[in-house]
Amino acid sequence: MKVKTILVSQPQPEGTKSPFYDLAEKLNLKVDFRPFIQVDPIPGKDFRKTERINFLDHTAVIFSSRNAVDHFFRVCEELKLEMPADMKYFCINEGMAYYLQKYIVMRKRKIFYGNGSEAELLNLIKNHPGENYLYPCSDIRKATFPDFLTKHKINFKEAILYRTVSADLSDLTDVFYDIIVFYSPADIKSLFENFPDFKQNNTRIAAWGATTAAAIEEANLVLNIPAPTSEVPSMTMALENYIILANK
Hints:
The chain has nine helices and eleven strands. By secondary structure, it is α/β, with parallel strands linked by helices. The chain has two domains: 5-36 and 167-246, Rossmann fold, CATH 3.40.50.10090; 40-164, Rossmann fold (3-Layer(aba) Sandwich). It has a six-stranded mixed beta sheet. It has a five-stranded parallel beta sheet with strand order 2-1-9-10-11, sandwiched between helices. The termini are close together.
């Protein structure tokens, strides 16, 4: 069956540049964006009562997402904490490192960043084993960082500063798409919390990453478009290859 419409379970990209916009124009598609999950902040006072973690006891902070950055500094502000000038920040990529400018003066700070892969960031951390790390995260997170830090006997504490919950998708009840693109197991959970009787029928499903693919299989859905693979390193490339064949 031909593909004309795609729903991407992510926020709409900021600005006018996005590989999804290019794909839509190139193949004459309708591409909509709708986050299937949302982030609820944990108030600073609640965090202090339940977690009993003092940010200032740590010498370095690990940031693997912009949500983590935003909520870390939100809690700092709510608790009236000022990070010392010698605090080190380890970011997953250069873009996130520059994003810190929203909260700190970069030229006065020690900031390290990887190339976008978890493996690269973990190698950076491994090269600084003497730090006492803080890992701000959601209540739903991959075990990659905690497992690595524990394995290499690196001092760290997880700080759960926000919760990932299912978004309300009730307005999509009677809306159908040829392809739905999922990026996390939480997206699949949200789909069935909103639509317990969801049937895939003729909808094709695309998934980013192995954990999302596993969640799709667990839900007894058919994964039509996996990414990344050795042949297609990006989601839009995987979609393009599939759609060109489907629309012949």
